[in-house]
Design a protein that fits this description.
Elements lengths: L24 E12 L4 E13 L4 E5 L6 H9 L6 E6 L2 E2 L7 E4 L11 H11 L4 H14 L15 H14 L4 E5 L7 H18 L2 E5 L3 H7 L2 E6 L4 E7 L14 H22 L12
Parallel strand pairs: 3-8, 3-9, 6-7, 7-8
Antiparallel strand pairs: 1-2, 1-4, 4-5, 9-10
This protein binds adenosine-5'-triphosphate and magnesium ion.
């Protein structure tokens, strides 16, 4: 169990700030301890996370299983309160969920009894937004994610990739300042995943969002991002922050270039020992309360 703000919603409410000089998102010394009352101990999941994300940047976090990526995303989403440190969005301290952030998870979790269009409208509806006024934008977003003509289909009539695109349109309809994505393509097959990466980039360029993206896949992180932040484990911490200089728009063929492969090697070297440890079952990662 850890401290929360007592709110379950992940599609959230806050003010839009107009400041431009401060980073969009800034994390200073964020620590998270999970208290395990049953075992009489606590686990430090994150230790002193310092990072910043600029407006309109695409930033990815990579790292081994259990290094605290989802925990950090939940802190940014405002559903977990940090044990120490401060997180600001547009210069304002994050103190709970807000409509300025939307989260896209690994599973599309669409409502099977709702059509594609009604699934896209669902997030806004939950927030008490004006659904009638949002209809035109919902159609526009379905076009952006390549699903025009599928408005009246049901989720079970769509492929996994199409369902994830509906999920993305649903998040974008909230018009969040910050889009938080936790391994959104992990359940897709390799080919669909590649196509979705390209499509996400084109959607990102058309909608000018700031994105914080979590993935296990190093090549995915490099291909999509302006900045790749590498987390290490025992406990979760920032090992490196690497700028990705490739020009945009990026083509999938970029992944085969020597420069791209160099970045993969560089990041893999940073996380290899932690990944091997996590693959062995994380015995060494079963941390105590000591940071
Ligand atoms: N609710 C919880 N209670 C106790 N410990 C937790 C809880 N949630 C996560 N943890 C622990 O915190 C650490 C970080 O977990 P987290 O889910 O953030 O990792 P992750 O990097 O997202 O992993 P993965 O890549 O497998 O999704 C792990 O050691 C995990 O066991
Ligand atoms: Mg996770």
């Amino acid at each position: 169990m850890t401290r929360t703000y007592g709110l379950e919603s992940t599609l959230l409410l806050n003010t839009k700030a107009s400041m431009t000089s401060t980073p969009k998102l800034q994390s200073k010394g964020i620590c998270v301890d999970y208290v395990q009352a049953r075992l009489g101990r606590s686990i430090r999941a994150l230790s002193k996370i310092d990072l910043s994300v600029q407006e309109n940047q695409f930033v990815s976090i990579v790292g081994p299983s259990g290094c605290g990526k989802t925990t950090f995303l939940n802190v940014v989403a405002g559903v977990i309160a940090p044990s120490e440190g401060e997180l600001t969005l547009d210069g304002h301290r994050v103190e709970g969920p807000g409509r300025d952030r939307a989260v896209v998870f690994q599973q599309a979790s669409l409502l099977p009894w709702r059509t594609v269009l009604n699934n896209v409208l669902y997030g806004l509806e939950c927030q008490g937004g004006d659904v009638t006024q949002a209809l035109a934008r919902a159609h526009e977003l379905l076009e952006i994610v390549g699903l025009s003509g599928f408005e009246d289909h049901y989720p079970n009539e769509l492929s996994g990739g199409m369902q994830q695109r509906v999920n993305l349109a649903r998040a974008l309809l909230i018009d969040p300042d910050l889009l938080l994505m936790d391994e959104p393509f992990a359940s897709l097959d390799a080919q669909t995943r590649e196509i979705m990466q390209s499509e996400l980039l084109s959607i990102w360029q058309r909608t000018s969002k700031t994105v914080l993206f979590i993935t296990h896949q190093i090549d995915e992180a490099i291909f999509l991002s302006d900045q790749v932040i590498v987390f290490g484990s025992r406990p979760g911490r920032v090992k490196a922050s690497i700028s990705i200089p490739f020009e945009r728009p990026r083509q999938l063929s970029l992944k085969r270039s020597p420069e791209f492969l160099n970045f993969i090697d560089q990041i893999w070297e940073l996380i290899e020992s932690d990944v091997r440890s996590a693959a062995r079952g994380g015995k060494e990662t079963a941390a105590s309360s000591d940071p």
